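Reminder to self: tokens first, then the designed residues, so the page reads top to bottom the way the pipeline ran.
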């Protein structure tokens, strides 16, 4: 029994030392995408930016989530590229993606083009 406990503690120490510690409200999402046909016939896909407090920006105007869904549905848009501001929380991010998806709008997350890290101080 003692050797088994030793192995468990060694594994525990190993996983503790190899884990990256990031702030809880940040989530790293892989942006590696297989090449698939994006928009049909070269149509531009609208870009929506998630701001803090469940606010979104589209066409340089600020909307609440419900207002944006109504606007996009009214415009016949069924696919959007979604980016997020550094102030947006994981809750804002997941709520936006799930609400858009539930309303028939396919969200595609896109990493910000900003070279600055969204979580300054955390090691890569």
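Designed residues (124 positions):
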């Amino acid at each position: 029994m003692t050797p088994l406990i030793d192995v468990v503690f060694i594994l525990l120490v190993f996983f503790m030392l190899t884990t990256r510690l990031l702030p809880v409200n940040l989530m790293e999402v892989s942006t590696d995408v297989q090449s698939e046909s994006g928009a049909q016939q070269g149509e531009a896909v609208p870009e929506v930016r998630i701001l803090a407090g469940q606010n979104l920006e589209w066409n340089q105007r600020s909307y609440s989530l419900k207002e944006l869904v109504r606007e996009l549905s009214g415009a016949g848009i069924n696919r959007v590229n979604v980016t997020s501001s550094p102030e947006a929380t994981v809750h804002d991010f997941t709520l936006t993606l799930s609400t858009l998806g539930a309303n028939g709008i396919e969200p595609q997350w896109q990493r910000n083009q900003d070279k600055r890290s969204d979580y300054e101080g955390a090691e890569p």
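The first helix runs from residue 2 to 18.
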